[in-house]
Amino acid sequence: MVNPLVVLRSAVYLTGQVLSTLILGPVMLLLSPWPFATRYAAANRWVRWNLWLLRTVCGLSYRVTGAEHIPAEGSGLILCKHQSAFETLALQVIFPPVVFILKQELLRIPVWGWAMATLEPIAIDRQARSVALKQILRDGVKRIATGRWVVLFPEGTRVAPGQRGRFGSSGGLLAQRARCPVIPVAHNAGEFWGRNGFLKYPGVIEFRVGPAIHGADLTATEINAAAESWIESEMARISGQGPRFPGRDDGIPVGR
Q1: Cβ(112)–Cβ(17) below 8 Å
Q2: Are strands 98-103 and 77-80 parallel, antiparallel or unpaired?
């Protein structure tokens, strides 16, 4: 049985998220003519507000292991496990400016989608796979060349905790073409905030950042294999610790 306090806190967070998004959307549209750095800084305030709200209201925070592996200079590709919406927030604080590879229809969401479009994501049509791959390679190289980190979820969609999806080839191909470092990221956010889930359970999400895989030195297949091996080995270490798993108490707030 779900703790009523978890439901209440999740409702309060959702209210704060919606209200802040309604404010952010028009602001981002007004900032459209401004440089990317200005737009990104404004959007990042919304990200930090939501992370603060999650920590304060829901008792949900995160900790990072391996941040020293993020290069101090330059940019590259982030290959990250995808389980929930939480990692889309946290990655924007853990890393320097990032752009996401996402499906086109997300940009049609009123207010939020309009705001996201101003941050120059790589929006693809997942039904047209060959066209999407060409776009990822073309636009991904351009974004990396301008100093931004490209975020790619190699399994293509959110995967439930304890499950694995097939790693697509686009990550390795992009890293090889851009001759850039690849940073693998594992986490267990889905154990606290499920896919399309309303409930946000209290606790501390584990983020593991792995050593750089150098795209200039390996084939696309080798890059993907190295990233998948590292991510899945780390997932095996941190999986099953969250409160959505049987036997865990989901009613005690935990946070930093």
Answers
A1: no
A2: unpaired
Judged by phi (left if over 0) then psi (alpha if -120 to 50, else beta), residue 17 lies in alpha
pTM of the entire predicted model: 0.91
pLDDT at 189 over 70: yes
Cα–Cα distance, 112 to 20 (Å, whole number): 10
Give the whole-angstrom CA distance, residue 22 versus residue 237: 39
The enclosing domain of 204 has a CATH number of 3.40.1130
Domain housing 18: 4-238
What are the residues whose beta carbons fall under 8 Å from the beta carbon of 216, sequence distance 6 or more? 176, 179, 180
Q: Please write the tens of the pLDDT for every residue from 29-50.
A: 999 999 999 999 999 999 999 9
Structural domain contains residue 254? no
Residue spans of alpha helices (H) in 110-158:
112-117, 129-145
- Mean of the per-residue pLDDT values for the chain? 92
